[in-house]
Amino acid sequence: SAQSHDDTQALLDMLQLYPSESPNDADEEPTSPLETIPSEPEYRDLVV
User: Fold this and answer.
1) Residues annotated as region Disordered (predicted)?
2) How far, in Å, are 22, 29, 31, 32, 44 from residue 48 at the CA level?
3) Which of 21, 28, 26, 25 is nearest to 11 (CA)?
4) Which of 17, 20, 26, 47 is deepest in the core (most CB within 10 A)?
């Protein structure tokens, strides 16, 4: 859905604004940071 896409883009923006201690790792494995993020409903609850 459009909302789901917006949430995903928001997460990507956050990762870019607050990179991990090893930015190179994020570049080499773009999916690695996302694996540690809870599912969307859980993540939305944490934000709110």
Assistant:
1) 18-48
2) 28, 28, 24, 24, 6
3) 26
4) 26
Q: Which residues touch 20 (CB under 8 Å, ≥6 apart)?
A: 26, 33
Number of domains, the chain: 1
Give the mean model confidence (pLDDT) for residues 2-28: 72
Asked whether the beta carbons of 15 and 21 are under 8 A apart, the reply is no
Q: What is the pTM of this model?
A: 0.29
- DSSP code string of 1-48: -HHHHHHHHHHHHHHHHS--S-HHHHHH-TTHHHHTSPPHHHHHHHH-
